Amino acid sequence: MKSVKKLTKSIKKDNTYNQENILKKSEDRLNVLKKIEILEKEGKFDIDAEDDPPTIVLTPENIDYLRTKMTSKIKRVFANKVGEKFLDDLLKNNKLIIKQINGIENLSKINTGAVVTCNHFNPFDCFTIEKVFRLSGQIETKKLYKVIREGNYTNFPGLYGFLFRNCDTLPLSSNKRTMVEFMKAVDIILQKGDFILIYPEQSLWWNYRKPKPLKHGAFKLATRNNVPIIPIFITMEDSKIIGEDGFPVQEYIVNISEPIYPNQNLNAKENTENMLNQNFEIWKNIYEEFYKIPLEYTTMKEEVANE
Fold first, then answer.
1. Which of 53-57, 95-99, 168-172, 284-288 has the lowest mean pLDDT?
2. Which residues contact 35 (CB under 8 A, 6 or more apart)?
């Protein structure tokens, strides 16, 4: 296993770019923005705008969701130390800028398990939630697990792959037997009183500011375990700092809303739908209030035009 010192060096190496790479990265970002524009017009909100590594199927024998094995426990402790160092470096070097946190008391006051939802627009937004989780004081008694895609766990290279595999992550799987183990682990985690971060949009669109339509998974899990949803919507502004990709680094305003609790008078299906709709309405209101514009999608405009 690599030492923290060696992995820290790899972090610095990952953050070193020559001029040729900067230009190439900027071109890549422009292509991503073009793809996002196309996906929105086509209404394909749940497709990632960037190419992910090929997925290798995750089978039950290759995952220890609850970190019960000694090797898993050791890797977890080590990875979280590396992750904390990585997060500190991001903040120190202004690669991640958290300008403001609104409603942190809505996170601090939860004394049960909970599902945390957040919009997904940058690989570093999970570090933002991790930082907020620590500032809320919940780190003293709880863990924050993060649901991730299968390929990020099985086939992501380098430092990020190491963190994906060991920093309290819950990978999804295309294998049904593995998903049975996933569901068992989720139930245990939530009943134990820990938090799980889920991106219900099911896609990452770089610096996309609108809330995307939500999938039902996060809300089914909350309903199944009778725990609240904590909706977080991150708004952003251009900073004066230009990143290595040629675009302004974004300043994040983290908006943590009041928790949404399951309604005991509704059945599971009704509760799932009700919580999803409440979550989306909260995000929509934050978006419109912050950016001072109505939430509209190019998809919807085209549908109206074709009627």
1. 53-57
2. 49, 50
The CA distance from 185 to 244, in Å, is 39
pLDDT digits (tens, 9 = 90+) for 251-271: 999 999 999 999 999 999 999
**What amino acid occupies position 268?**
A
Q: Which of 12-21, 103-112, 189-198, 290-299 has the lowest mean pLDDT?
A: 12-21
Q: How many CA atoms lie within 13 A of 124 on its CB side?
A: 17
Q: Are 108 and 138 in contact (CB under 8 A)?
A: yes
**Residue 124 CB contacts under 8 Å (≥ 6 apart), including other chains:** 90, 95, 96
Q: What is the greatest pairwise CA distance in the chain?
A: 61
Domain span holding position 67 = 4-306
Give, as one character, the DSSP assignment of residue 17: -
Query: What CATH number has the domain bearing residue 283?
Result: 3.40.1130
Q: How many domains does the chain contain in total?
A: 1
CB atoms within 10 A of CB 250: 23
Query: Which tokens in the block code for residue 197?
Result: 């971060």
Token duo for residue 99: 């300008």
β-sheet bridge partners, residue 291 = none
| Crossing angle (nearest 10°) for helices 158-166 and 4-14 | 130
Contact yes or no for 120/283 (Cβ under 8 A): no
